[in-house]
Amino acid sequence: MRTTPVFVQRFLNNIIGIASDESEEILKRCENIKRDKLEAVKAQLETEYAKTVKSSAHATRSKYRKTVSEKAVEYKRALYSHRVELIDTLLNDTINSVRDYTSTQAYRNRLAALCAEAAKVMDGRSFSIFLRPEDMRFCEELKTAVPGADFAAGDFRLGGIKALSSDGRINIDETFDSAAENLRSGFSGYFSFTPSD
């Protein structure tokens, strides 16, 4: 068996030591490169994650706002429909009350008072008083309250009077039909709905 001379052994030990030191240095550099690359990838992923979260949050907020807006419009429409139903119910109840009222003596007295007021407004002019067809039966009684007025059937149905001067310059409308329409218009304007509401 041969022995390796001492100087060769020292040379080999030096070479192995140098190689070992260099390999440790290479491993450290590789670890540093690996760590730097991982940190760069991690930073890039965190940036992309933040962008994705921000984008998702924006999309979610937009979707939420759209849903809220749609629901708000839906509820406003439902509220408007309910208001219209309430107006119709109120007006129908009012019209029914007017129909009941028109069968009373108080209504006949009111017709006489309206005719007298119309005569004052006409101030001596000749004029016609229009009644609903059902009220034409009161003409004789009303003629005594307003002598000289011509009576004719009007085109309204709820009651009251219209008076028109013969020259057409004075037109008085004291009909329940007009009052009901004014009431409906007033309610409709008050309870109107627009998308901007």
Question: How would you summarize this macromolecular structure in one to three sentences?
Answer:
The protein is an alpha+beta fold. The chain is built from four helices and four strands.
Describe the structure.
- There is one protein chain.
- With 197 residues, the chain is of the alpha+beta class.
- The protein has a domain at 102-190: hypothetical protein PF0899 fold (2-Layer Sandwich).
- It contains four helices and four strands; from the N terminus they run ααβαβββα.
- It has helices at 6-101, 105-122, 139-145, 176-190, and strands at 127-131, 150-153, 160-165, 171-175.
- A four-stranded mixed beta sheet has the order 2-1-3-4.
- Helix 1 (6-101) runs antiparallel to helix 4.
- The longest helix has 96 residues, at 6-101.
- The radius of gyration is 49 Å and the shape is rod-shaped.
- The chain starts with 5 loop residues before the first helix and ends in a 7-residue tail after the last helix.
- The mean pLDDT is 84.
Q: What is the CATH homology-level superfamily of the domain at 102-190?
A: ATP synthase, E subunit, C-terminal
Strand order of the largest sheet: 2-1-3-4
Q: Give the count of helical stretches.
A: 4
What oligomeric state do these chains adopt? single chain
CATH class of the domain at 102-190: Alpha Beta
Low-confidence stretches: none
Rg is: 49 Å
Q: Which geometry do the CA atoms define?
A: rod-shaped
According to DSSP, the number of beta strands is 4
CATH fold category name of the domain at 102-190: hypothetical protein PF0899 fold
Topology as a string of helices (H) and strands (E): HHEHEEEH
> Kindly state the mean pLDDT as a whole number?
84
Measure the end-to-end span: 106 Å
CATH architecture of the domain at 102-190: 2-Layer Sandwich
Q: How does the helix and strand content classify structurally?
A: alpha+beta
- Level of helix content? 55-70%
- Mind summarizing the main beta sheet? 4 strands, mixed
**β-strand amount:** 5-15%
